[in-house]
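Revision sheet: structure tokens.
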Amino acid sequence: AHKVAPAIAAGCPFVLKPAAKTPIGALIIGEVLAETELPRGAFSILPCSNEDASVLVEDERIALLSFTGGLVGWDLKARAGRKKVTLELGGNAACIVDADPGAPLDHVVDRLVFGAYYQSGQSCISVQHILVHRDLYEKLRRKLKARVASLVMGDPRDEKTFIGPVIDEAAAKRIEGWIDTARKGGAKRLAGGARHGNMLPATLMEKVPRDSDLYRHEVFGPVACLQPFDDFESALDTVNASDFGLQAGVFTANLAHAMRAWDRLEVGGVVVGDVPSFRVDNMPYGGVKQSGLGREGVKYAIEDMTEPRLLVIRDLPA
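Predicted:
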């Protein structure tokens, strides 16, 4: 929908190719659009395998490739030829909790739980790293551990459920393997448990090795890594050490720290007073480094979907 609405507003016909494992949402969008007065050929919904979608990337008749997904996006960009390309490739977002977070600790914990575990962590801007000032670390650690352990895992159709399945069992096994490897390297699991098929309990880790997959890559599952810091500048350095740079969150009552974070963090967006898992369509949304290229949001997407044109009229001599 982040791509479809700007295309309609700009008058651009489009082909929507959903992720191979999640086509139903796109088909529902197609059903809705079919009831409108859009002209024939204004849109196509094309569920297909990734292997069969090459023509959408390479055919020069398609003027723009707008892709949301994994790091394969860089390969798609290389194959796209002369067409415009915008990429939203995810991240491993961090949230900094300063010595004075500017909000009650229970509120901060509630937001961290939402940011890390909503949609079972399957969000590009899910909170994966939680950096907490050492003065608050033990107290927040205790509260967060209890809250995460209390999250109900089960059928998403049950209103009591907070943690549902990840996309498939292969993804669950990958996440489980990353957790196990991190634990062998010295990480400690504060909350979590055994995997059941593609169901993985909400997991909170600390002392995660910085060279582990769990720390460096995008988990895209219900796992968050907790760590303390002593100096705000060092926390910013830690966030910037990531290969990704989509969004970051900062809880602080210190305006200078908030502005310092905005100035120094190598990310597409800094959210002060909340987790990075925030997005509305009037904001420029996108990242830097491995997180992608370009910006989404209605205004910014329309700019990518159109070409500026110049008209010059000179008065001719009489």
